């Protein structure tokens, strides 16, 4: 006998939806559900509907799902919890008041003081969220009761389009019972009703699900979720609510991974053609990926410290994943899936306390740095035409394997270089500005063709077929400033690299926190004087390049732009100023990249000869044979900083 078909009532024509199998929906399908027994998130895949040619993924809300509220259903904050799936914790009521000082509460959260008492954690969540600065008019529990009555009424079964902002996401059940899953659906529908400006927020289902475990009722869960969404504290951010903001956060995480997880970033760059596809999952590692016990401990601190703590935790996950695959890199078939599997099984590698200890031990990690990277990345995305509502697309395949042409590097090697440069620049295609094969061996010609463009990538090949280069963050015209006095300039985003015979990147050493350096097996920098030390193999040119009066602060970021450059963004104001910061310098006699105890790269004015040494700025070994002859030089810019193709 065929199962009865549920008809679709009239619903608002709201676009959007997730991977729903939108087919005819039966009552039997609605009753099926599966649960995890180990606390690992169980994603509630909600069936969709099909009526003739209509294919709008739907949420099914049925009061028949309100059953069996568990052995502790009488607990004030436990009606939506399946207690058989909850990690060991006290379900007893708690009357102990929480401290009014949020600094004390923050210390308690990091220490996990309420992780073993369900009621205490619920009270802590309400206490913390009530203190969040919000918009003047933020929907509360009374609003929820009003709109839920209008949307759902007394119907046994009601259906609603998936909220538009859930595109591509699922609902983690964690330790919710069926009634809890039903409540999450209702809260999400009501959130969309009250916040139509939220266009992309795949993490919100997980946030609502976590909140519901510690909510007295649906209205309280809705109210707390709304306060996180409506936070207007300039020093606190919780939830990205547009596609543009979400993508900016993913790019920012990529920038931070390059700085704090060098080994993991290198592994991803050499095993996955699209780094961004890996980094775009970073929030889903935390919201939906982590086991419940770990997710709630992260959530405890997240409510007090905002999104900054999420970056910390995700970086710690990436570091630990790199450690876990150290001896079996060649066996990695699907790195993206491998990281997701590692996140789900993190309990087999680290206890939750040790895991959080790792996250909070990352040094020189500032909210200001995150904020400024996010601003720069957002501007770069806007320049590329990414909008608030634009859907996920392949934005990071900037190197076309079919059309790319270089006399020095292959398309795949250029992709590796592009994976090293800051995310806001990696959005754009490389454009050839200068090549000795076409423009001749003249330094003045090189200057004339690259001035006005930033950043640039310098590549060179020696007569011994060795290939190296440098990413240079500043316009070469900076060399003419400072009243004509030659000096070093550039920013801390500069780096040098080798491609053949070995592939390695060497960044500004001050940008690597001490712990990150040791964990990623970087050699420690030998700090020396900032005074200029000429290369022993460099011809005596008589040039007097100095470090005095540098025209650019090394702690600034730039945003790619073809117009006059916008103000730079200070990224790491706390870094010590005595460390060598000699990035790039140029005169008629030659160019120098990196200084302090030697130059990472020196190329003479005829573009025929060069030398390379260890330098304090990048703490690099010689990039190739210490004294070399040049076969070919190329300088590349990024497409959006070039108004017209110049080569």
UniProtKB/TrEMBL annotation:
Keywords: Cytoplasmic vesicle, Membrane, Synapse. It comes from the Eukaryota. It is found in: Cytoplasmic vesicle membrane; Endomembrane system; Synapse. Residues 407-639 form the TLDc domain. One of its GO terms (cellular component) is synapse. SMART domains: TBC, TLDc. It is a peripheral membrane protein. Residues 519-555 are annotated as: Disordered. InterPro entries: Rab-GAP-TBC_dom, Rab-GAP_TBC_sf, TLDc_dom. Its main location: membrane. Residues 530-555 have a biased composition (Polar residues). It holds the Pfam family TLD. May act as a GTPase-activating protein for Rab family protein(s). Involved in neuronal projections development, probably through a negative modulation of ARF6 function. Involved in the regulation of synaptic vesicle trafficking. Interacts with ARF6. This is TBC1 domain family member 24. It comes from Acipenser oxyrinchus oxyrinchus. The lineage of its organism: Eukaryota, Metazoa, Chordata, Craniata, Vertebrata. The gene is tbc1d24.
């Amino acid at each position: 006998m065929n199962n009865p078909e549920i008809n679709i009532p009239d619903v608002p024509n709201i676009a959007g939806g997730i991977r729903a199998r939108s087919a005819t929906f039966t009552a039997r399908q609605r009753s099926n559900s599966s649960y995890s027994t180990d606390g690992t998130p169980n994603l509630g895949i909600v069936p969709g509907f099909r009526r003739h040619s209509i294919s709008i993924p739907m949420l099914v809300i049925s009061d028949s799902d309100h059953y069996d509220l568990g052995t502790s259903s009488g607990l004030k904050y436990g009606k939506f919890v399946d207690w058989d799936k909850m990690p060991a914790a006290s379900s007893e009521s708690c009357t102990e008041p929480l401290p009014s000082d949020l600094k004390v509460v923050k210390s308690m959260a990091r220490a996990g003081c309420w992780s073993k008492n369900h009621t205490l954690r619920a009270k802590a969540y309400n206490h913390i969220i009530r203190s969040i600065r919000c918009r003047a008019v933020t929907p509360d529990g009374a609003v929820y009761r009003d709109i839920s009555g209008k949307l759902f009424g007394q119907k046994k079964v009601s259906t609603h389009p998936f909220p538009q902002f859930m595109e591509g996401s699922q609902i983690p059940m964690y330790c919710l019972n069926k009634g809890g899953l039903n409540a999450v659906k209702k809260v999400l529908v009501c959130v969309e009703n009250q916040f139509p400006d939220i266009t992309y927020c795949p993490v919100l289902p997980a946030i609502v699900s976590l909140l519901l475990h510690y909510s007295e009722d649906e209205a309280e869960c809705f109210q707390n979720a709304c306060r996180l969404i409506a936070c207007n504290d300039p020093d606190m951010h919780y939830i990205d609510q547009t596609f543009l903001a979400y993508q900016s956060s993913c790019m920012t995480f990529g920038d931070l991974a390059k700085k704090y997880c060098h080994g993991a970033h290198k592994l991803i760059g050499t095993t996955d053609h699209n780094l961004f596809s890996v980094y775009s999952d970073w929030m889903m590692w935390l919201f939906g990926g982590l086991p419940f016990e770990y997710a709630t401990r992260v959530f405890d601190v997240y409510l007090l410290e905002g999104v900054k703590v999420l970056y910390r935790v995700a970086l710690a996950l990436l570091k630990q994943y790199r450690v876990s695959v150290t001896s079996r890199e060649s066996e990695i078939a699907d790195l993206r899936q491998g990281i997701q599997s590692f996140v789900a099984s993190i309990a087999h590698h680290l206890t939750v306390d040790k895991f959080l200890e790792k996250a909070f031990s990352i040094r020189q990690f500032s909210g200001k740095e995150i904020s400024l990277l996010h601003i720069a990345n957002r501007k770069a995305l806007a320049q590329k035409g990414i909008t608030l509502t634009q859907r996920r697309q392949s934005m990071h395949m900037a190197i076309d394997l079919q059309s790319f042409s270089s006399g020095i590097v292959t398309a795949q090697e250029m992709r590796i270089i592009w994976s090293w440069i800051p995310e806001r620049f990696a959005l754009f295609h490389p454009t050839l500005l200068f090549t000795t094969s076409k423009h001749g061996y003249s330094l003045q010609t090189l200057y004339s063709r690259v001035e006005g463009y930033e950043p640039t990538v310098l590549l060179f090949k020696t007569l011994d077929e060795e290939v190296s280069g440098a990413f240079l963050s500043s316009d070469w015209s900076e060399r003419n400033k400072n009243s004509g006095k030659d000096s070093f300039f550039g920013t801390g985003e500069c780096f040098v690299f080798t491609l053949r015979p070995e592939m390695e990147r060497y960044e500004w050493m001050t940008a690597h926190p001490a712990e990150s350096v040791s964990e990623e097996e970087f050699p420690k920098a030998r700090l020396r004087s900032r005074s200029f030390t000429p290369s022993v193999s460099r011809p005596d040119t008589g040039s007097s390049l100095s470090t005095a009066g540098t025209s650019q602060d090394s702690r600034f970021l730039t945003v790619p732009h073809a117009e006059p450059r916008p103000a730079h963004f200070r990224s790491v104001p706390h870094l010590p100023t005595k460390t060598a910061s000699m990035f790039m310098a140029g005169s008629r006699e030659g160019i120098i990249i990196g200084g302090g105890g030697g130059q990472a790269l020196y190329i003479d004015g005829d573009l025929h000869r060069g030398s390379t040494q260890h330098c304090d700025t990048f703490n690099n070994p010689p990039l190739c044979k210490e004294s070399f002859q040049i076969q070919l030089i190329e300088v590349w810019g990024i497409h959006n900083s070039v108004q017209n193709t110049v080569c």
